[in-house]
Every structure is written in structure tokens, then in C-alpha cells.
Design brief:
The protein is mainly alpha-helical. Helices cover 71% and strands 2% of the residues. It is built from seven helices and two strands.
């Protein structure tokens, strides 16, 4: 009796294992199916932005001045922020570059004065001034480098944003007056008196 029960348990266990193995085999993909899945492009890597004429114009504008392309596509706040950030970083880099070159010239002149000095105290004072100018020059160099990197980073982010992230809001042109101009039948010159400033790009 015990032998029969043991055989029944063994058969039932074997049947369960065979069924599980069959299910796992049916769920596995073949090698060809796996290769096809690998060859298919990922939807995350696809660029869903439609390249219209306005989109290409915006990319050119952003390449020339960061933020202008975003503003052209109707993203005014983002565009103004990028433009101000890039202009500020670039201006700071130029100012520090100008200070750096000015201090370089001053240090060269001080070295000439140091070599031409006839007294020890005068030469020592000039040398102290040279050391101070070197410290200020090195600070100008560091600031110039950091602001230059910041301007480059803003420009790169601006191009990535205009190509992949910024959507066209459908605005056809910039306008300072969004209200429609209503004609006045009683005054034929009324339409000329209502000014609407518009800037049409291209």
C-alpha cells in the first residue's frame, strides 16, 4: 500500500514538473524573434518632433542666439531666460578676459620698472605690486574660464531643447497687440489710427 502511494506521489510530481517545463518553453522566444526585437528601434529614441519650416527657422535662430528660437515658437519665458542667461555669461566672460589682458600688460610694464629700479625699497614695492597683480590676474582667468563654460553649456542645452523638447505653439508671428482690429464704419480712418506692431521673421 505504501509503495502504491509513493508511486502515485511520484507520478503526480513528475506531471507537475513536466507541465511547468512546457509552459516555460512556450513562453520563451526563439532566437530569430529576439533578433527582430533587437533590430527594431526603441520608441524612446525616436524624435517625435515634426521638422516644419518654422522648426528649422527656430533651430537656426537658436544657433545664432540661444533662446530666440524658443521665443519664435511661442515659448517666450523659456526663450527670454536662455537669452538672458547666455548673454550674461558671455558678457561676464568678455569682461574678465579684458581684465585679464589688461593685467597682463600691467605686469609686463611693472617688470620693466622693476628691472630699471635703482633702489632696493623701490624694487621691493614694485615686486609687491606685481604679486598682487598676479593674484588678481589668476582670479580673472578663473572667472573667464567658468563663465565661458557656462555660456557654452547654455548654448548646448539651448540646441538640445530647440531640437527635442520645444514644441511649436502655432504662433505665426510676434505681436505686441493680440486684440483684433475692429473696423469703424463711421470713421474711414479709424483703422489707420489703431497701431499694431508686428515683427515678421522671414
Amino acid at each position: 500500500m505504501k509503495l502504491i502511494i509513493a508511486l502515485l506521489l511520484a507520478l503526480s510530481t513528475t506531471g507537475i514538473l513536466v507541465a511547468q517545463a512546457a509552459d516555460s518553453i512556450s513562453e520563451k522566444k526563439s532566437v530569430s524573434e529576439l533578433l527582430q526585437d533587437v533590430k527594431q528601434p526603441s520608441p524612446l529614441g525616436q524624435n517625435t518632433q515634426e521638422w516644419t519650416i518654422r522648426k528649422m527657422r527656430a533651430a537656426v535662430l537658436s544657433g545664432l542666439m540661444p533662446g530666440t528660437g524658443q521665443t519664435y515658437l511661442g515659448q517666450e519665458y523659456k526663450g527670454v531666460g536662455l537669452t538672458i542667461g547666455f548673454a550674461g555669461a558671455a558678457l561676464a566672460a568678455l569682461l574678465n578676459h579684458n581684465n585679464f589682458t589688461t593685467r597682463e600688460d600691467r605686469i609686463s610694464n611693472l617688470f620693466e620698472d622693476y628691472e630699471a629700479s635703482s633702489s632696493y625699497s623701490g624694487a621691493e614695492a614694485i615686486w609687491q605690486t606685481i604679486e598682487q597683480e598676479k593674484v588678481s590676474r589668476d582670479k580673472d582667468y578663473s572667472r573667464r574660464k567658468y563663465f565661458s563654460y557656462a555660456a557654452i553649456a547654455i548654448w548646448v542645452y539651448n540646441m538640445v531643447d530647440i531640437i527635442y523638447l520645444t514644441e511649436d505653439s502655432g504662433v505665426e508671428q510676434f505681436s505686441f497687440n493680440t486684440n483684433p482690429v475692429h473696423s469703424n464704419s463711421g470713421n474711414p480712418f479709424a483703422s489707420n489710427q489703431l497701431l499694431s506692431f508686428r515683427i515678421n521673421l522671414f
